[in-house]
Amino acid sequence: MNARRLVWAVPIGLVAAAPIISYFVFPDDFLPAFYAWIREHGTVGVLIFAVVYVVICVFLLAPGELVSAAAGFLFGAWGAPLAVISHFIAALIGFLISRYFLRARVKAWTRKHRLFAAIDAAAAEHSWVLVLLLRLNPLAPPNIQNYFFGATNIGLLPYSVATFFGIIPLTVAYVYLGAIGQTLVFEQGITSSKLALLCIGLIATAVAVYMMTRKVSQKLREMTTAQETIGLRRS
Fold first, then answer.
1. Between 45 and which of 41, 97, 142, 176 could a Cys-Cys bridge form, CB atoms 3.0 to 4.6 Å apart?
2. Is the dihedral of CA 156, 158, 161, 167 positive or negative?
3. What per-residue confidence (pLDDT) applies to 180?
4. CA dist 56 to 53, 82, 91, 119, 175, Å?
5. Are 218 and 55 in contact (CB under 8 A)?
6. Are 123 and 153 a contacting pair, CB within 8 Å?
7. What pLDDT digit, counting tens, does each position of 17-49 carry?
8. d(CA 87, CA 141)
9. How far is residue 86's CA from residue 169's CA, in Å, rounded to a whole number?
């Protein structure tokens, strides 16, 4: 396995294993009690989780992938719309903070990094296409992207539309991984056939993410290489 594959395989593996690891790390009654508390509080529990999700992403306290997996672990399939909406709200807040308070600092940082400078240059020409491609790329930390795009010249509307649709595939994939963890940890009497279906779904998800990563990374390389070439010619 080369370094590029390892970069995306490790976080996905950690996300998939997190619920099982937590089952052995935390006290025996912690996960069932927390799970029951969230479920029993209904709408309040959902709102609390959404607020926590947004805060974690805005303040870069943890990878958004892990929080999305937690949504699947706690809410199952219903965690998908909850995670997508929470993720989108956090993306808008991060973008606006960067645009109106941190733009100069983020701009100065991107100029020191050749890749980000090329992406910044490409953003002026491709706009929402670039946002969509980066949102579909699991190698690009989503929470960092929020602040990066806020420092570019991309308008709020194209950023919002491209971000909303761009975050759906990977967010749903991470929620699905968390839902698998919920099934393995809490469901009693899992049959071999159901376990096989879960494994098949996990493998299919990993393959889909990998194929998407290859296509998106290739397109991003083409765009950034073109911008780097233009920049070298001008200099």
1. 41
2. negative
3. 83
4. 5, 15, 11, 26, 16
5. no
6. yes
7. 555 555 454 455 555 676 777 778 788 888 988
8. 13
9. 15
